[in-house]
Amino acid sequence: MTNEFFENMFSTTPIMAILRGLGVQRTLEVAELAWNIGVTCVEVPIQTPEDLKTLEALAQAARERGLVTGAGTVLNLTHVAQAKDCGAAFTVSPGTNLEVIQACAEAGLAHLPGVATASDIQVAMGQGLDWVKAFPASVLGTSWLKAMGGPFPGLKFVSTGGMDAHNAREFLDAGARVIAVGSALEDPRQLGLLAELLRERT
After folding, report:
1. 100/154 Cα distance (integer angstroms)
2. Residue 162 three-state SS
3. Which of 31, 30, 86 is nearest to 62 (CA)?
4. Structural domain tally of the chain?
5. pLDDT at res. 187
6. How many CB atoms are closer than 10 A to CB 202?
7. Do residues 137 and 176 lie in contact, with contact meaning Cβ atoms separated by under 8 Å?
8. What is the pLDDT of residue 178?
9. What is the pLDDT of residues 97-138, one digit of tens each?
10. Over 80: is that where the pLDDT of 202 sits?
11. 124 and 113 in contact (C-beta within 8 Å)?
């Protein structure tokens, strides 16, 4: 289910939005900006009670557009349950946790685990996952992506952490299938550059 979910979700866009700690109203506003330029995949990290309210509100707004929303920074079983209750369709973690992967499968939530080593990747692949989050991407670098593409040619990377309109092409050209951006969506100039990138890549 997870692989098919992400394959479908990212088939029309190489960009994902991460809206962290903005509060309900600002998150909805920035999500609208993202949706309007074609970034249809939006994640809200859930670290505070306010984040849960934000995720629930965004999930409702996304459904009205025929879209889905994800919960990010999912670290444990409580977070999995909260993501489900708030209406998330998928979850994202900074690392690879077997309990979280299995709980998401049981809850019917697609899951994107974070990886930073070949061992992380093998654990994720051992659970049948073809999509992973390369984190922190700006620290790992494009050479890491190219190196991992050798032993793991079928893996799809979502590069997350330090991504913006200025380095997006570099990471996509290095093998990332998707790049995840945050504050770039609040910068009008970068928003324009991301829209241009979407036109080129879709």
Report:
1. 23
2. coil
3. 31
4. 1
5. 92
6. 11
7. yes
8. 98
9. 999 999 999 999 999 999 999 999 999 999 999 999 999 999
10. no
11. yes
Q: Which class for 53: exposed (0-12), middle (13-18), buried (19 or more C-beta within 10 A)? A: middle
Domain that holds residue 145: 2-201
Q: Can you tell me the distance from the alpha carbon of 117 to that of 115, in angstroms, rounded to the nearest whole number?
A: 6
Is the link from the previous residue into 94 a cis peptide, with omega within 30 of 0?
no
Tell me the mean pLDDT in the region 187-200.
93
pTM strictly above 0.90:
yes
Q: Which residue has the tokens 């960009």?
A: 15
**DSSP assignment, residue 65?**
T
* Alpha helix (H) residue ranges in 65-153: 77-85, 98-107, 118-126, 137-149
Task: Supply 162's token pair.
Answer: 């330090």
Angle at 93 between CA 177 and CA 71, to 5 degrees: 90
Radius of gyration of the chain (CA): 16
**% of the chain surpassing 90 pLDDT:** 98
Residue 159: which CATH number? 3.20.20.70
pLDDT for res 23: 97
Residue 140 contacts residue 114 (beta carbons within 8 Å): no
pLDDT band at 1 (very low <50, low <70, confident <90, very high): confident
The three-state secondary structure class of 26 is helix
Count Cβ atoms below 10 Å from residue 87 Cβ, excluding itself: 17
